[in-house]
Amino acid sequence: MSSSLNKILDKGKAKLKEYTNQPSSHPPQQGYPGQGYPGQNQQQQNYPQQQYQPQQYTGAQYPQYQPYPNAPQWGPSPQQQQQQQWGPPPPQQAFSPPPVPSHSKPSSVPPPIPQNRPMSNPPPPQNLAPAHHESVYWKPSFDAATPVSHNFRHELGDHGWGNNEKQNYTDSSANSFHHDNRLIVRGLVQNGSYTSARLTSHQTLQRPRGFLTATVLPPCAEGVWPAYWMLPKDPFQWPGDGEIDIFESWQGDCINHSCLHWGHYNGEDWNKHQVVTTPLHDMAQQPHTFGFSWIEEDGIPNWRGKMLWYIDGRPVMKGSIPQGTRRLEEYRLLINIAMGGTVCGGKLPNDGYYDLVVSDLKMCEEPPGGWPKFESDWQCTQEGKPI
């Protein structure tokens, strides 16, 4: 009996040894940490990388985001997980939410992580004096100690905004805040509630000629419509007074829409909407710099001036300032995330958070290369096509 039992035990030990010596069927994980964003080094067919180098960002400046150990996550999608490598942390339920105005919903939305979170290699501060050659005349501070309301007015409401949009725009710190010297507009979706922010700058373009630029990492997802654009200051009449879209992306299509609008979408106004679309296949992972320059003339009959749109320093669209629109020096900047609506075909985003991250926003006296370069770019840049 003892001999039989020993044989059984020996056989079992042999099987266990054989099993433990088998090679693992699970390959080692790739791409985290320190290997960059998925697809970051792939060549873009429609937007050659060597011609469109972002002006502000390198991998060394912005290390991957490292969350607190065991911090609870709140509903990020795979795309949002990629964005965490560059952008702000997700909302955390471990922290008490700030007071939420009565018009903001829901009151239970978790707030962002505290703004004093240390970083191993923080980006350079944006509130330093600009280089002399840039001739910057407005550069808002995105320091955590500066309220968002110092530079922007929060437009509020959930009335659809003329496009059957779903979101409720709030002034809650859960929907707009500063993090690591960047401005974050955050759309939050939770249990049928859609909240976001729509920011309008107190500052106008203010000059008859100049250059506006910002670096943007947008959310890319179904039902989400982020934008960085301009309208005339209040009071104004849309669309006759004009609208200028510098960055705009729909439905996570990774296509930028550079647009000029000064009419309705029917009848005689059919051609008063001009656009150039630019594919940016790495839009969800890689920040891009979007610029706009203008020259508004005086005293020339039937001529208002010229405008150029840029992506990563390259002009992508030109347009003449339409007769009857407001003077460009009276335009103000808008930054927002809309959800749903006719542009998104009625589709809505899934539960989670969607961040529009803005850095290095500024208004300058002239574009890079000065006005001779502007004139040269004007000659070789395409005009927008009617939508």
From TrEMBL:
Recorded superkingdom: Eukaryota
One Gene Ontology term of the molecular function aspect: carbohydrate binding
Q: Which UniProt keywords apply?
A: Lectin
Q: Which BP terms from GO are recorded?
A: carbohydrate metabolic process
Q: State where composition is biased (Basic and acidic residues).
A: 8-18
Domain GH16, which positions? 117-376
Which segments show compositional bias classed as Low complexity?
Answer: 38-86
User: Which intervals of the chain are annotated as region Disordered?
Assistant: 1-131
Q: List the biased-composition ranges (Pro residues).
A: 87-101, 108-127
What is the protein named?
Concanavalin A-like lectin/glucanase
**What Pfam family is a match for this entry?**
GH16_XgeA
